[in-house]
Design brief:
single chain, about 65% helix
Length: about 170
């Protein structure tokens, strides 16, 4: 049975879909993992965070980026996540996400019912250089008690990437 046929046969069993996703990850079968996460189980990526990415052998930054590209939907449409999921993703990645996935996660964070500055901080830390200015502008439109310090972090990261200014 092909991986695609297994995924189709398991579409009504969330645990089986998650198991197939875990197997695809262990085998580095990114197309199958992507098919699962973009169709049958868009929130499957959160299950990987419970045990940690290292338990799936994802230890290098490149491996974690490959996983994120396959497992996290790049299209907006994430429902709001609880703060734990985004903070756990930040800890697991140990660096930025690919830009499209980082944007989707940031948008999900801003739509969360339980939005916190800690969650927004994690979402900003997951943003690669190319998305920081956009995020800073979005944070400027949010209530300062939630987003003020997070916007300051985004602006500091932008300035650090620009390097020293000529005197």
């Amino acid at each position: 049975m092909t991986p695609a046929a297994m995924v189709d046969a398991a579409q009504l069993d969330a645990r089986l879909i998650r198991g197939i996703a875990f197997s695809a990850c262990a085998e580095r079968n990114w197309p199958v993992l992507s098919d699962i996460c973009n169709g049958h189980g868009p929130e499957v990526w959160t299950a990987f965070l419970q045990t940690g990415l290292a338990n799936f052998g994802l230890v290098t930054p490149r491996e974690r980026l490959d996983w994120a590209s396959a497992a996290i939907r790049a299209q907006p449409g994430h429902s709001g996540h609880d703060p734990f999921q985004i903070v756990a993703l930040h800890r697991a990645m140990e660096g930025p996400l690919p830009l499209a996935q980082a944007r989707a996660i940031f948008q999900a964070a801003t739509r969360s019912r339980h939005i916190t500055s800690e969650m927004l901080t994690a979402a900003v830390a997951l943003m690669p250089d190319g998305g920081l200015e956009e995020v800073s502008l979005m944070l400027g439109q949010m209530p300062p008690d939630i987003a003020g310090r997070v916007q300051l972090l985004a602006n500091i990261l932008i300035r650090l990437k620009e390097g020293p200014r000529p005197s």
